[in-house]
Amino acid sequence: MSADGAVAPATPAAPAVAVTGVSKVFRQAKGEVTALEAVDLTVAAGEFVSLIGPSGCGKSTLLRLVADLAEPTAGEVRVFGKTARAARRDQDYGIAFQAAGLLPWRTVSANVELPLELHGVGRAERRRRAQELLELVGLADFAKARPEQLSGGMQQRVAIARALAERPRLLLMDEPFGALDEMTRERMQAELVRLRTETGAAVVFVTHSIPEAVFLSDRVVVMSPRPGRITHVVDVPLAVRNEDVREAPAFYATVTAVREALRGRLPRGEVDGAAADEPAGADEPAAADEPAGAPRGPARANRTAE
Amino acid sequence: MTSQLTGSPLTAPATSRRSWGGAATRRRVVAVVAPVVFGAAFLGVWELAVKAQDLPPYILPAPSAIAEQFRLNASDVWATFRASGANALVGLAVGALLGVLAGMVAARARFVDELLSPLAAAVAAMPIVALAPVLDTMFSATSSIPRRIVVAVVAFFPVFVNTVRGLRAVDPVHAELMRSYAASGWDLTRVVRWPGSLPFVFTGLRVASSLAVIAAVVVEYFGGLQDGLGSRITAAASNTAYARAWAYVVAAIALGLLFYVVALGAERLATRGRSAPEH
């Protein structure tokens, strides 16, 4: 791990995200908490990468470093070859959080229009784009509603529409589907796959759900806590992503591989999802996935204390 | 068909099941009638007590005597009511405006906040109407400005304190979102802080409106131009015309209620749809 973070040479096709030797230490009253230690991660342009791991593994912190919502203690984060800060300034990414974070005094449509409004897009164009996005997330009839009139899941869909408003080349998503019911969740996953295919946007997706990570991703990055590190990177060998894939053997094999990685039963490093279809402990209950409402890790706790 | 008055603790739950319209109407009627009946009964007991005990008016004049004086002096009550009302309104407007502006500055600059907030606490603890004689000597005897300054100073603090609180109460997710949009500090203020702080500002305004009327009336006890309700109350009392003094007190109460009700309405309007904050 290079503490200073050597400047990466500019490549013709810069990866969407390049994280090199990144550590993040939160200083708290009780002492220091190492949220991330010596993390390296590259996300190619157009690639879909999920970050998965137990609470406190620093996956949300890593996402926040990419979004330049926090700064690494050591190491370097580059987005499309620029510093994370420059990428944020240039609006190279769209972001959706676990909490919808809609402005309660604005209508649903005005919430979706917010980023466009801030960046000087005209009223008529904003309206048109917001309507288009609301249709995409199945909320076209709620354009004039207030956020408080919507369920939690619907609010989250508005937040995702808002993240897509500016057609970003990189989408950062922090457990955006965590609050949705299973049916809506699968529909949103399919929508996200379609969106990603249409826009060619790279996605960094934080989740607690193994099937979700496998269904969506090209690669699943498995992390472990205390300190937060990347332990495994599981390649997902799925050519197409449709509803049939959810029942395909390769899908199950990859889900198993991720689960094994999370349990620490696989040797560290790169894992080929399809090769791990002979699990050692297949008779054990599949308890590795955390409940969606699991308590937030120290990284999150620190965020509210800041 | 929702009644705004059903929040009254005096409202008896309607038991009629004849029809929903009948029940709702009855609830509404009860909500209005109950306090009126109670008030009338209170005045009746007061009247009877004064008459039966033959109380001297300097202890307590009868409601009928107060009403009589109110009627006899109606035009002067109205003129002084308007004068005090104008003082309260102008002072409140100026004080609230300055309170909001100072709150906006304090919420942005910690230095200003550290400068103003202890000062605000200290000044809030001091009887500001006591400034009146000092201010009166600074302006001509026919000027309304000293009284309005006192009202403005009184109104300033609740608005200031609540504005700072409201502007600081930003949902962390909203702040992060704005940061991700590379929004300027001005954008954050305009799009998130201001709308988010409105309910707080209006709460401050409601508190300030009551204080403004009190200050506008009481400040005349200390001299200055004598064309408001306060001057008539002291004048009548010093002439042992106690019923007349009470008539002007009633007008002062009405003025206070008027300000309060308007400010409360504005507050309700500003907080509409905010009952269920996120997270």
Task: Write a structural description.
The complex is a heterodimer of chains A (306) and B (279). By secondary structure, chain A is α/β, with parallel strands linked by helices. In chain A, 32% of the residues lie in helices and 23% in strands. Chain A contains nine helices and eleven strands. Chain A has helices at 59-66, 84-89, 108-118, 123-136, 152-163, 182-199, 210-216, 249-262, 298-305; strands at 17-28, 31-43, 48-52, 74-79, 82-83, 93-96, 170-174, 202-207, 219-224, 229-235, 269-272. Chain A has a seven-stranded mixed β-sheet with strand order 6-7-8-3-9-10-11, sandwiched between helices. Chain A has a four-stranded antiparallel β-sheet with strand order 2-1-4-5. In chain A, helix 3 runs parallel beside helix 5 and helix 4 (123-136) packs across helix 5 (152-163). The two termini of chain A are 27 Å apart. Residues 1-11 and 277-306 of chain A have low confidence and may be disordered. The longest helix of chain B is centred in the N-terminal third of the chain and has 35 residues, at 74-108. Chain B contains ten helices and no strands. The radius of gyration of chain B is 23 Å and the shape is flat. Chain B is mostly helical and 279 residues long. Helices cover 74% and strands 0% of the residues of chain B. Classes of the chains: A alpha/beta (306), B mainly alpha (279). At the A-B interface, helix 3 of A face helix 7 and helix 8 of B.
